[in-house]
Amino acid sequence: MIQLLEDAILFSNKNIVKFSFSNKNKYQSYSVGIYCSILELSQSFYELIKSENLTGSLSVYRTFLENFVDLKNLKNDTAYVDQLDYNNLISMKKDFKSAKLGNVYLKPLAKHVDDKLPELLADIEKLKVAMDGKSLNIRDKFVKAQMESEYQGLYPILCSEAHCSVSAILARHFNYDPEKNSIEMVVNSKESISNFDFYLCNMAQQLLDAGAILCDILGDSMLNEYLSQSEVVRESVEAK
């Protein structure tokens, strides 16, 4: 199954340079930027699995999936750019306020707080008006993208890898040996790559679907090529 993802990455890298967009168009620029992140994250995931450095791979997939959700939402709603801007400004507001309180990690920002924070707060209020006060949390974004099943079934697994989940720690670092009737500690486990077949197939499909989505957003003529390649993956998975 890793070959499916490798082929999807090769196809995507070959064609990404063919996309044409206006960097003065926020909607197109955000869409292209998110797609580029999706492609790079798929490459990171592939390299981790291929090298059997499996710890952290599902954290990469989590970020990949969040980007995929944003791209789907951009396709379905051009006004979703306001949501992305809003999320970014809220994050910046937290950083400025923390810097003002003396956070040593944000010290370089402290000298800009008085000048930048009022303007930033005003921009946030403008976006609130544009969005009718409806900001989306992560679940809302999945629902908007018609991916509630992924949110309820797949996303929690990916999050458990990203956070200090007891279940993930036990599965990763402790193994029961029935012959010795003992539990052994495991580090740098060389778990079978086949255990990741589901994620490899799913990511290959979503990477190609993301390309098709970008074609749709940009009105690009490569749409049918991406859809055809996506169908190849689907048929390969069904055949296995």
Question: Please, could you describe this protein's structure?
Answer:
The chain is mainly alpha-helical and 240 residues long. It folds into two domains: 2-79 and 131-239; 80-130. 72% of the residues lie in helices and 3% in strands. The chain contains eleven helices and two strands; from the N terminus they run αααααααααββαα. The chain has helices at 2-16, 26-50, 57-76, 80-100, 107-110, 113-130, 138-144, 148-162, 166-173, 197-218, 223-239, and strands spanning 174-177, 182-185. Strands 1-2 form a two-stranded antiparallel sheet. Helix 2 packs antiparallel against helix 3 (57-76), helix 3 (57-76) runs parallel beside helix 10 and helix 10 (197-218) packs antiparallel against helix 11 (223-239). The longest helix has 25 residues, at 26-50. It starts with a helix and ends with a helix.
Distance from N terminus to C terminus (CA atoms, Å) equals 9 Å
The secondary-structure class comes to: mainly alpha
Largest sheet: 2 strands, antiparallel
Average pLDDT:
92
Enumerate the spans where pLDDT stays under 50 for 5 or more consecutive residues.
none
The residue fraction in helices comes out at: over 70%
What's the overall geometry? globular
What is the C-alpha radius of gyration, as a whole number of Å?
A: 21 Å
Spell the H/E element sequence.
Answer: HHHHHHHHHEEHH
The percent range for strand residues is under 5%
Number of strands: 2
Q: Count up the domains.
A: 2
Count of helical stretches: 11
Please state how the strands of the largest beta sheet are arranged side by side. 1-2
